[in-house]
Structure prediction request, 351 residues.
Amino acid sequence: MKHKVMPLLAKVTSPASSKSATPRALTVIDTGSQLLVQNDAIPFKVTFEKSRATFTSFEYKGQHYIHGGVAPNIWRAPTDNDEGGPVGEWPPFVHSIVHFLFAYFGFLLALFVPRILYNIAAFAKRWRFNRLDRPLMLLSNFEYQETPEGTVAITTTSNLRTTFDTIIYKANFVVHESGVIDVAASFDLSQVQGLFPGLPRVGVQLLLPQNFSQYGWYGRGPHENYPDRLHSAMIGVYRSSVQDQHYNYIRPQETGNRCGVRWSEVRTPEGQGWRATATATPFNASISPYSQDNLTASLHVNELKPAGYTTWNLDAAQMGVGGDVSWLPSTHPEFLLREKAYSVAFTLTPS
Prediction:
């Protein structure tokens, strides 16, 4: 089949058809814009949307398991401490002017504007200024291969563009005959510079059907914990409902993170669902009945509305929450995310 060139100049390639004497359990169908991998014996079918560098549908034994597939996520709903800083929220027209000045005269402003004024601004303001809440994702490469082991390996590369910088995001998937999917996501920040403030979080997010309402994990708990708030959280196996993972802070914000997670699972009351098992180092995990956008935009708890799906975050890392003082950005340097590379790897097992 002749493959189309994807939008945004993405490269899409595949190998020649396998000529194994043993029939392959997995069937691969390339439609040009999508890649379908299925096994009729189980049955399951996973659909990859090439332009989005992820799978957007997963059907397992007649049930839908995905509302939105593995997607890069470098944002969190700002906490009260994230919003703390002497530079208050600018009116929209001032924000637009500053964006214009930095876009066209960024180098000169970096020379003449006292850097300290930027560095003491609230973390959340710097994140928004750098568009970490809405980076532009541009696919640059999508490839797949049917392996001798009977799996299908998919490799993708995308650029996450912020106001001034580009983060290279790579997501690799291996689909097994059983329906298990190995996921490895990496973030290359070697090109970021200038006014980049560090990341609030770095990882991937999945959207699951709303009836995936039961949660469990093997990691730190039972209460929420963060890199600078975890010594009282003991490692163990914990279970709760998805709703109980949300804490109603007076102003809605980031909540429910768990560090040191070896596995995290989300299921329906009948027991259908996913388990994500760390394949390298433990990850951070959280779950919510609300969307990340809703948590970010809401000022009061009555503004929170069930998303109609379950939001599942699996992160390489999340920034600390700080709190020495609330009127200045006070998260300690060792709990900031300013490394040049991050990665998270896990195996998704349906049941």
The helical segments are 92-112, 115-119, 123-129, 292-297.
